[in-house]
Design goal:
The chain is an all-alpha fold. Helix content is about 80%, strand content about 0%. The chain has a single domain, classed as Farnesyl Diphosphate Synthase, CATH 1.10.600.10.
Length: about 350
């Protein structure tokens, strides 16, 4: 009983700490986020009754607004928030929301952030068209305001995200992903959007290519850390919570599993591959793979890599002057790698 109470207390303290890190950024950006919410609502309005109803549904179920926060903090670190910054934040959020809507269709997901998904309520055809609509609204927002540099930053991210997803689909079939390819995939499919958010924010505030490149690199590194943290959730949450094995069931090659396969003897390697390919729906078999990964040092290795990318990201921030925005960005960096969900 005492052990359970201590675990609960530890979790509560950790959760409170993470909320403080998020809230610190939100306090710094209170005014910007309030204006952004209004502008974003205006940007997704439609004269089509069905579309307008769906847009209001999307706005009501918005998430933690992490990507807009990265846009605004990058802008304040590189200079100051401008009208272009608000357009950059809306563009990033429109793109991100479009990808989530399409992802739910591809994954046949019925929920998103505790709500029914678009496809669960309005079916796949409507959901695909809604995703297309959101993407087109983002493109027009940039074009109508001659924001061609922003358009290039975001369009590059869309291209890389698509390439990364297709690369992962292709390689997952053979389960032969090496570590170098894994990092290329997550750089493209996950980190590119966060990198574009930081780059767009930097450009909107400074029109300075050097600052834009620096903050793009920062966003990419913290985006990679974010994905590795997601990988680690599949194997348990720092002794708080149970392993899920969802990635194994979906035949996703995550860093802990890749490390284990690279360092296992041939018999163990064949066993893991066979289970992932043929027995990935059996709970006891998935647990067997999880146990092998835990014993192999794969978790520690992945955590070290995550921390290394976090350190590189923080080193980039040190090249900018101290400010409330830089401190809040550092808090977000720590949140990304220490979050419990």
């Amino acid at each position: 009983m005492l052990v359970v109470q201590n675990l609960c207390l530890t979790f509560t303290r950790c959760l409170n700490n993470f909320l403080k890190q998020m809230n610190a950024a939100k306090r710094v950006l209170a005014q910007e986020l309030q204006v952004f919410e209004q502008k974003f609502s205006e940007n997704v309005q439609s004269s089509n009754a069905l579309l307008d109803r769906i847009m209001k549904f999307i706005i009501r179920r918005k998430g933690k607004q992490m990507r807009p926060m990265f846009v605004f903090l990058a802008a304040r670190i590189a200079g100051s928030v401008t009208d272009t910054t608000y357009r950059a934040a809306s563009l990033i959020e429109l793109l991100h929301t479009a990808t989530l809507v399409h992802d739910d269709v591809v994954d046949d997901a019925s929920t998103r952030r505790g709500f029914f998904s678009i496809n669960a309520i309005w079916k796949n055809k409507v959901a695909v068209l809604v995703g297309d609509y959101l993407l087109s609204k983002g493109l027009l927002l940039a074009l109508d305001n001659d924001e061609f540099r922003l358009l290039k930053i975001v369009s590059t991210a869309v291209k890389e995200m698509s390439e990364g997803e297709l690369m992962q689909i292709e390689k997952t079939r053979k389960l032969d992903i090496k570590e170098e390819l894994y990092f290329e995939i997550i750089r493209s499919k996950t980190a590119s959007l966060l990198a574009s958010a930081c780059a767009a924010g930097a450009w909107s505030a400074s029109r300075d290519e050097h600052k834009t490149r620096l903050l793009h690199a920062f966003g990419e590194k913290i985006g990679i850390s974010f994905q590795i943290k997601d990988d680690l959730f599949d194997y348990g949450n720092d002794n708080i919570g149970k392993p899920t094995g969802i990635d194994i069931k979906e035949k996703k090659m995550t860093l802990p599993l890749i490390y284990t396969l690279q360092h296992a003897d041939e018999a163990t390697r064949r066993k893991i591959i066979y289970i992932v390919k043929n027995e990935n729906k059996k709970k006891e078999k998935v647990k067997e793979v999880i146990d092998i990964v835990l014993q192999s040092g794969g978790i520690e290795y992945a955590r070290e890599k995550m921390q290394a990318y976090q350190t590189e990201a923080l080193d980039i921030l040190q090249q900018f002057p101290e400010s409330a925005a830089r401190a809040a960005m550092e808090d977000l960096v720590h949140y990304v790698t220490q979050r419990k969900y």
